[in-house]
């Protein structure tokens, strides 16, 4: 289970609607009005996407508040991670992190250095400073996946200072950016930097994992280098069409952020009332949970039979099998999860008593 | 101009409908009924595509007449070319050929051996035999692009014998397969071979370049190797949905093939009546033309101003600037092209006379 969202594999376990807490998608669903836009655009499928993605890049730049010349696009964020990691010889990551930060450079035979987060999954800046050397690529999730933690502004600035000093490069994966509290915007912070690439994506916040649209802000030098190695037409026509709509739907953007903030508070507080689990703080739309004296398989199986798919987290390097990750979904699903977890602990207690 | 279909770049030259002869797409347009299918599937966008592409592979296997376990899928044929060429140290191609056969392995720093086709753009099997050595990847377009020539069955078998003897691997790009006369089916010929991968695609024949769906038949061993390096979710949800429809539209398939066959005869015979060009034989839906005592820029510019986009062919390694490639389109567009080319030769003759 390297990735969440694999409903098909577990379909047989439950007959009704499956509540997928294993992939971190905006529960509000895709922006309204997109359906019509796509319908009108179907005829465009008989043409190639614009090989230079001129309109697409200009829509993204408008949304991000930067120049179109600083934009790269990809077949999901993962293609950008793939292509950037191809360009460097040594890649530094912190663990646990999104598995593709390790997997993609591994496929290219790159040297990979894995630095652990601390016990509360906070970033260890000292360790990063000691490790980074010239020409390295540092990949950080911000917020990090599966921990849900976003760096503080001063932490990020301090890390970037090191990158600059050491002549290294920072790939900041902000695929969950819009779910987070509005504190700082890294694109504004580093608008003139040559040594950073900041990934965003339509996948999570705009609830469009099927569309495959990733994009990033970076320096013009890096854009040029990137274009030299990128596959042609890697972003499909529907993604081009979707971009014309979603980034302009301010109501969707604001209400999604607000809704997730409320549900985050609700779910954190309810989960913290449940026995035998430790619930970590999060800044975005998923929550990492430590199972105390239990393992992911037991709870996964129990919940799957109730139609709930959670993410077993042992596939994240640095986590053992005592963690699960759950998405923050809509109120009714969240309540369903909370109840199921309470029942599970009840059921488990009884089983342990019986076995004793 | 590394690829065709880049209408946006030339949009300013002509005010009306641009007739794009530079990309080789089925002029009939996408299969009827697909629009409805896609409309019904829009809600699926909020889920990830199946990471294992189970339904998609089974639809493709049914269409190709093989097992789903022998199928790989990609973000267009070009992603499959990219990933396969990554696996080998030395890549052998014949020139002229589709530029990505050279470009993708080049990006990975592979050694590339380029063998010329003969003067009539026929394949030189002897040269291939002399060149291939153990562990090589041979990439052949069948039909080849930009020449339009499909290998004879015995030629292909002979080449494959060499591949087998030398313990090499053959990547056969048959993206234009369905446009060709129904002589042999390479997937049937090599159904048990461990050393071949045969690419097909929805892009050209099903007129869906915007959907980005490439697929290939290969051995189970290669499928496994491929899956280890492929990007997750590289095929989008719309491509999954389209596959459920297009491969079952037998009427579309038959009538497209018939229509192209008729238009191919028409266009070949009309073009051969035009002065100062040499028109090569073709088995598929595009035609390579040699300009006698002329260059691609002159004719490109003249035609662009009439709303016709042709493919300048000098970007194909092995061709100088005296070639263009044109797609076979519908009758009215083909007629328009023939007339414009006649006018061009007329205009050119006058200009030459005036200058003399």
TrEMBL record, chains A, B:
GO molecular function: catalytic activity; pyridoxal phosphate binding
Cofactor annotation: pyridoxal 5'-phosphate
SUPFAM superfamilies in alphabetical order: PLP-dependent transferases
CDD domains in UniProt: AAT_like
Signal peptide: none
Residues of the Aminotransferase class I/classII large domain: 39-341
Coiled-coil segments on the chain, per record: none
InterPro entries from the UniProt entry: Aminotransferase_I/II_large, PyrdxlP-dep_Trfase, PyrdxlP-dep_Trfase_major, PyrdxlP-dep_Trfase_small
Keywords, comma-separated and alphabetical: Pyridoxal phosphate
Pfam families in the record: Aminotran_1_2
Domain of life assignment: Bacteria
PANTHER family with a match to the protein in the record: HISTIDINOL-PHOSPHATE AMINOTRANSFERASE-RELATED (PTHR42885), THREONINE-PHOSPHATE DECARBOXYLASE (PTHR42885:SF1)
Official protein name in the record: Threonine-phosphate decarboxylase
UniProt source species: Fervidicella metallireducens AeB
């Amino acid at each position: 289970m390297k990735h969440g969202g694999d409903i098909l594999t577990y379909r047989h376990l439950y007959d009704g609607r499956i509540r997928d807490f294993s992939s971190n998608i905006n529960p509000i669903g895709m922006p309204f009005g997109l359906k019509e836009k796509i319908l009108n655009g179907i005829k465009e499928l008989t043409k190639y996407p614009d090989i230079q993605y001129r309109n697409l890049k200009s829509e993204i730049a408008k949304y991000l508040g930067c120049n179109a010349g600083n934009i790269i696009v990809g077949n999901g964020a993962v293609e950008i991670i793939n292509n950037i990691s191809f360009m460097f010889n040594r890649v530094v990551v912190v663990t646990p992190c999104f598995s593709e930060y390790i997997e993609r450079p591994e496929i290219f035979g790159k040297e990979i250095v894995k630095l652990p987060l601390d016990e509360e999954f906070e970033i260890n800046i000292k360790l990063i400073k000691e490790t980074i050397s010239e020409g390295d690529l540092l990949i950080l999730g911000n917020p990090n996946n599966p921990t849900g933690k976003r760096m503080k502004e001063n932490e990020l600035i301090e890390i970037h200072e090191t990158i600059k000093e050491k002549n290294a490069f920072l790939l900041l994966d902000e695929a969950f950016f819009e779910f987070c509290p509005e504190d700082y915007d890294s694109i504004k912070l580093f608008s003139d930097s040559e040594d950073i690439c900041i990934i965003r994506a339509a996948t999570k916040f705009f609830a469009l994992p099927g569309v495959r649209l990733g994009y990033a802000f970076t320096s013009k030098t890096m854009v040029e280098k990137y274009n030299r190695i990128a596959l042609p037409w890697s972003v499909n026509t529907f993604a081009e069409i979707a971009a014309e709509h979603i980034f302009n739907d301010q109501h969707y953007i604001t209400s999604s952020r607000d809704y997730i903030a409320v549900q985050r508070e609700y779910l954190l507080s309810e989960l913290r009332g449940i026995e035998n689990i430790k619930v970590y703080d999060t800044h975005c739309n998923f929550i990492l949970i430590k199972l105390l004296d239990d393992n992911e398989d037991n709870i996964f199986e129990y919940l799957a039979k109730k139609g709930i798919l959670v993410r077993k987290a042992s596939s994240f390097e640095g986590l053992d099998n005592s963690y699960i990750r759950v998405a923050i979904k809509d109120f009714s699903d969240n309540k369903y999860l909370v109840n199921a977890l309470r029942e599970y602990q009840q059921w488990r207690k009884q089983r342990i008593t019986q076995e004793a």
